[in-house]
Fold:
Amino acid sequence: MADEDYFYHPLENIEDIDVFYDAVERTNLTKSLSPERPYTYWTIELYDQKNGIRGGGGLGVLAADTRRVAEKMGIPFVLLTPFYPSETQQIIENGEINDIHKDVDYHKFGYKFIDSVFVKCCNNICKLDVIEKKFNSTRIIAITEPNFGELYSGMSSSDHRIYQEVALGFGGYQALKLLGLKPAIMQLNEVATFFAALARLDELTSNGMDFYEAVVYTRKHTLYTNHTLVQAAEAQFSLDQFRRFVFPNLKSAAVRKWLTDKFDNGNIKLSSASIEIAELRSGVSKLHARVANYHDISGNKVKFKAITNGIDMDTWTMPEVLDYYHENSILDRVNYPTNDYADNLNRLNAETIRKFKKEGREILNKVLKNRPDHNGNILQFSDDDFIFDFKRRFVDYKRPDLAFRDSSRLRNILEPRNAHYILTGRIHTGDPVMPAKLKHILNIVNSDDYLKTHVHYIPDYDEELAYGLSCGSNVAINVPIVGLEACGTSWMKDVANLNLLISTHDGGVADAHMDDYFNVNGATEEDELDMLYQQMEDAISVWENDFDLEYVMMRQLRAFLPIVSGARMLRDYLDYLFPK
Structure:
């Protein structure tokens, strides 16, 4: 099949989104994608507890959501990822975070063993099992073996980490061949998946294609999606590690030479190699694509196409709220905003918002029955309780401690309304900063009689807790240091579930205008702190006034529903990958 046969030519002059999707279903995208030539999506992390793989944060959640959206849209889509036979759960004891390691058996989650493939590492042949699970037009193909370890085990530049990445890339590419699949496109999510494209380049070259033609072909069919902002912070691998883990899997001397030339002073950053092997490059928000500081091998700054992340609305939105969006023609059947969604939001009133929040509180209470807080208390909230939440991966730049910088002022905000503040987030194993920062926060909380009973840290943040808080809270707090968040998706779930959003203007939030949410800004961090407290007070006031609640909620939804839509995200990818 010729190259041009891979490409999807978007239908022209179609204004009605329903007509567009009818046409997609009718043609099944056969000019670009088919079950034999699928969209392949490579990720070192998948966060899909229902299907047995528990990731560490937003990258994994995004991967799961993207596959679900592709399934709903009927797109031939294959997600390739490791299946880690061990996972970490977190508990808190005496204010200290401790990890519990749990074995995971893929057989219990409906995966089918396909066959084994092999990679070469350190003069050993490593056997990898290929397992698969199908979901209509989509499937998960995973690589696993008993000693594969946990997600992000060891240091980022360790031998074990490069082994996992090589196993996914070379082993995953062999798995596709085993199943008779040829990628129409390879989307590399972050640099850990670089070796998949390298395996394709090596196969083309070793099968007789001219090396430069093979490079052009591979580049044309590879998308590198960057999820971080600064290249300097990236881990590096040594030439010695490549000689032990990578070069033994390459058949082509030309590819080995090409790869060796990418080393600088005996080390390589995989982002540099990913930029060279992918002609198509995307960032995950408008701001991210504009400010990401990456350079190619010649020192030129790399341009990224802005395709903002989205969420699977079916997974993360309360069924009652999602039904309302559909029944009032706010979202179409694949959860893309309708042409007149903004006008149709005028039907949303305070009574309906409060009814949904009452139903969401029941969902949250059900989740919390088995999730004690840091003091061992089982929390149950009434309909009248007011809840702020901070729920996202615990890293320093997201500033989970910001609201606790002035504990007396925080108490003065919460106490008049008898409000609660729920804090949750996973700390990566080996993080040198955040365990101490969490302990400091909890010491502040437990030293104040009121905060001790109204601020709650819930350990072992996961999908279940994220969903419960999105449904049952009133206000979400998202305050990363501006310029450090690539996108973020936790806040998207809050917006979809009718929570008010307090946020700095960073990541995907910055796709909208500052006036569309409770913005936190300031020339100094002290100014930002003052603004955060003011916005918390204002958010409480909005919830107490029906007119204000309707106005602010509709303004927020008008701005953000197109941004948070996973269907919008995937359509943006298709338009980018398969231009007219």
